[in-house]
Amino acid sequence: MFNPFEEKPKQIENFLMDWKTIYPKSYCKNEVDPYTKTRIILMNGIEAEASMFSHQFHRHCTDNDVRRDLAMMRRIEQMQQKQINWLKPIDETPLETTIGYEHVAVDLTAWLAQNEPDPYVKQTLDFILLEDFDHLYRYANLLDMDSNIQANNLVKNYVEIIPGRPTIAHHRHPYDTVSRYVDFKKADIRTKLNIFIITAGEQQTMNFYNNIGNTYYNDLGRQLYLEIALVEEEHVTQYGSLIDPRLTWFESLLLHEYTECYLYYSFYESEVDSNVKSIWEMHLGAEIAHLHKAAELLQKHENKSWCEVIPGGQFPNLLLFHDTREYVRKVLSQMVEITADKEDLKNVNDLPENHTFFWFQNKVNHDINSVASHVVIDKHNTLKGEDYRVELAPHPVESLRNRKEDNTSIGRSKQKKVVSI
Fold first, then answer.
1. How far, CA to CA in Å, does 311 sit from each of 18, 64, 328?
2. Is the pTM higher than 0.70?
3. How many Å from the N-terminal Cα to the C-terminal Cα in the chain?
4. Distances (CA, A) of 172 to 266, 286, 362, 366
5. What is the DSSP letter of 292?
6. SS3 content of the chain, % helix, strand, coil (to 5)
7. pLDDT tens per residue, range 59-103
8. C-alpha–C-alpha distance, residues 96 and 52, integer Å
9. How would DSSP label each residue in 388-414?
10. Contact, 39 vs 321, CB < 8 A?
11. What's the chain's Rg over C-alpha atoms?
12. What is the SS3 assignment for 246?
């Protein structure tokens, strides 16, 4: 398997771009393979995370030589991020892009969960998977209602559009969004990669909704973005708290660069669009150079070899977007009523009446008719007679099969045992 530490890097300065190079040829929104689009969205988030981390490192570093090295790498990361983000075409609306963001969240999280060796991390991925899956359903109904565009034309049957754990049930007390951190000295490299990848991806989704949500042209859409952006804050907190806080700045820099190398190599191997594939190849070269610089800084300032942080250096199984619909159905049937209890996950029916989850639900959701994620479905049903969904078979959870009424109690309040298949 590919080992980026064994590659001979080019000079970092070689990867600075001129304006013609930075501004790419955009994809065609009606022809692009949905997985090309998911790769673009994810790498935009990965590059944004790399830049934000570098800024924080810069602000906590007293050595100006190190800060100059960070500034050089960060400038290239920013150029890469702009080149990737501007692959989005002019005629793709923010809501159409949003469908892509939630498609990324579903298939990425499902793939990571299926390739995660740590049971606690896997459980966290499965738990949040059902929430991003429901966000896709809510946004798809808004798209159908406001623009008469069917989201399935964008995702092309790669993912189902059906209710997950209803968004109204996602709102949890902040205390219940903090996970146990993973010991990175003992963790498998797949676990480290998975945590870094999913945290960056969710963070980009949160930032995207924060920035474009208030530009939607009607109040209901603005309210839906606001609500789901706050759920994404929960997700970023929950995933981010899995990262070992004992990592040094230089160790974390090395892991960030290794993660980028891993993803660019993975996507270069699976990309079907020749234009985008060439971008992945170019950026892989840049990240290999950054990785070697990070290893050099780690050795110089902490007297540590890169292999103390990333033993061996070889990539694990490459990340490959593929059909995860059956896996999502399985998780839905098993975890739709699960919520968080501080660092653990529990069935909502097993929580005491005075639990923080119920207190917080009453605080923010006491008026169900003010909860945008519910109102979107309710209004769609009124206008079109039923919700918008695309499904392989009847919903795996019987109480979520009714297409004329939005379920606002499952996963949120105590009820009789859910019947599933």
1. 37, 30, 32
2. yes
3. 40
4. 35, 40, 10, 14
5. H
6. 65, 5, 35
7. 999 999 999 999 999 999 999 999 999 999 999 999 999 999 999
8. 26
9. --B-SSS-SBGGG--TTS---STTTS-
10. yes
11. 22
12. coil
Q: Are 402 and 166 in contact (CB under 8 A)?
A: no
Q: How does pLDDT run across 223-266, given as a tens digit for each residue?
A: 999 999 999 999 999 999 999 999 999 999 999 999 999 999 99
**348 CB contacts (<8 Å, ≥6 apart)?**
169, 337, 338, 339, 357, 411, 412, 413, 414
Please say whether the beta carbons of 291 and 261 come within 8 A: yes
- Written as six digits, the tokens of 264 are 């660019």
How far is 108 from 319, CA to CA, in rounded Å?
9
Q: Are 268 and 315 in contact (CB under 8 A)?
A: no
DSSP one-letter string for 219-237: HHHHHHHHHHHHHHHHHHH
Structure token pair of residue 334: 């098993």
Tokens coding 360: 């917080």
3-state SS assignment for residue 420:
strand
Those residues with Cβ within 8 angstroms of residue 211's Cβ, 6 or more apart along the chain or in another chain:
none
Give the other-Cβ count within 10 Å of 319's Cβ: 22
Separation of alpha carbons 159 and 34, rounded Å: 10
CA 306/CA 64 separation, integer angstroms: 22
Read off the pLDDT of residues 302-343 as tens digits, 9 standing for 90 and up. Answer: 999 999 999 999 999 999 999 999 999 999 999 999 999 999
Q: Check: CB of residue 172 under 8 Å from CB of residue 360.
A: yes
Token reading at 160:
């189902």
Residue 81, C-beta contacts closer than 8 angstroms, at least 6 positions apart: 44, 47, 48, 51
pLDDT mean over 385-399: 97
Tell me if residue 248 falls in helix, strand or coil: coil
